[in-house]
Inverse folding.
């Protein structure tokens, strides 16, 4: 059985980027519903003993949708640090690969934001890596994610309206820009090193 992840920060720690009110709905209600639905769908699926990533790779239909959303949200919530803490840019191999492919971190961020704004409807924008460590930015609708396509998920911004509407209304672009202020690049680097 899966459980709702505990946040590594207090409910108001991401303000003003993400309000405590948004976090209470997004984490406490939306993610909880996906966890509950996943647990209801798992029995007799033949996938009960698998890890979340393995379920995402093998599941279809409602089971995939709920497992995918649990994985996506867990990675999303765990990649942030409190807004009061300083955000350090990426370093090492991750930064080298970003600069190799996009020339600058700012150019990468601009393309990432554009892909997030340009995703029609609801979904996720991801930084992902292949087995060789090459990076790409991808748009995934619904619950889809890099794991389902054999790629390593590194960084994701949620572009479902419930992730930002209480704080930004229809200003998705402003929300995406603000998220860089709480992105913990040390976590993204760790994910990249574990490719």
């Amino acid at each position: 059985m899966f459980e709702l992840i505990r946040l590594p920060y207090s409910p108001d720690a991401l303000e003003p980027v993400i309000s405590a009110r948004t976090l209470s709905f997004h984490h406490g209600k939306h993610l909880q519903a996906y966890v509950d639905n996943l647990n209801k769908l798992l029995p007799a699926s033949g996938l009960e003993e698998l890890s979340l990533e393995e379920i995402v790779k093998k599941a279809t239909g409602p089971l995939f949708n709920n497992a995918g959303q649990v994985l996506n949200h867990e990675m999303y919530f765990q990649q942030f640090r409190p807004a009061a803490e300083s955000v350090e840019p990426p370093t090492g191999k991750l930064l080298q690969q970003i600069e190799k492919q996009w020339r600058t971190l700012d150019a990468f961020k601009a393309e990432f934001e554009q892909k997030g704004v340009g995703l029609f409807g609801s979904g996720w924008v991801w930084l992902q890596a292949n087995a060789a460590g090459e990076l790409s930015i991808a748009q995934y609708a619904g619950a889809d994610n890099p794991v389902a396509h054999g790629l390593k998920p590194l960084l994701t911004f949620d572009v479902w309206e419930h992730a930002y509407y209480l704080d930004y209304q229809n200003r998705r672009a402003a929300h995406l820009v603000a998220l860089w202020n709480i992105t913990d690049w040390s976590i993204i680097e760790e994910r990249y090193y574990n490719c």
Observations:
- Helices lie at 20-41, 52-58, 61-78, 92-102, 105-118, 165-168, 172-179, 185-193.
